[in-house]
Amino acid sequence: MKTQKKRTILAAVLGATCAMPMMHARADHEFGDNTPFYEDDSWYDVSEWFDGNDYNPTDEAIGRWDDELFTYADNATSSDNDNFLNWGDYGYNSGNESDWFYDYYDDGYATWENRFYSNYYDTNDDGVYDAYSSYSDTDGDGLYEDFNYYTFNSDADDQEKNRMQAKSQQKEMKSTEMQVSGNVEDTKMVNVRDRIHLIAMVSQSNGQPMMVDLGPDQAEVQLFKGDRVSATGHVMKVGEKSVLVANEASMKNGTIAIDRSGKKYQGTIEKVKTVSVRGTERKLAKVKTANDKTMMVDLGPASNLDSDLEQGAKITVQGVPVKVKDRVILMAHKIMHDGDQTRVDRRVAQAN
């Protein structure tokens, strides 16, 4: 069956959860020089760390000399299976007859928490996320009042158009969770960007089936046709289909919490640097991973981080890859170090 091309720039989403004070973004903010997340001066200062010594782990190919510059042509021919760029629009694989849900789709690492919704976007479908939007329900009325959008790549095309498309979704979204309960009619493993997710078709009491995304790496889930399942989360639109992006699910073998923090990498910090990004001091780290590659990681606000996250520290990070000019940087959402776990707050106020 022919792949549906292309997905809309933003999925229509019904949004997030409980109460917490928020940083207020200005919904009337005009698109301008402050919109890129990384100011040029800060980013180029950081790039001086890299001396042509494998700063970008995404375009290597076995048996090919690497010039240490990321290009999408290189990446397309790469035999390196540990890179970020395993992606696709929503659609079906050729010859697949199981068409009750897509074989692959991009969820944009959608995150709902504390009446706050955020999503990453690949605005030009080149395989790397290059923009981000967030929405917050500041008064708890179920509607998102505040909107924030920025791009990681100041060279991206149609930035204003993309921002306006993101903003247009604000009125369609609600910050309340939804619960789906019923019997499993079928299950399917689906490629969601760089991970494999378990999708269940759940028959509700009203007779209408609902697709439920139970998240990545659910090896412990024992779910079969006819089983009873109850899931809580938020609904997003993928093409013409709706899917509940579950954050928790209960079934016969127990209740699971679903981790959507991103792909996991282990390594050692080689260098750290604190830079000012949109008025906040943030810590960036150069990390040598377990397979001897080097990656740049944005660890988040420096004030919220363990002071021991310095050169030589062993860490595990989970996050989302984004493109800044010709470099890929991992936006950490969870950091594990010395037995402690830190969730990175990615809520960012608009720059003045």
Automatic annotation (TrEMBL):
This is Magnetosome protein MamS/MamX domain-containing protein. Residues 1-27 form the signal peptide. InterPro entries: MamS_MamX_dom. It comes from Rubripirellula obstinata. Keywords: Signal. Residues 263-340 form the Magnetosome protein MamS/MamX domain. Pfam families: MamS_MamX (PF26390).
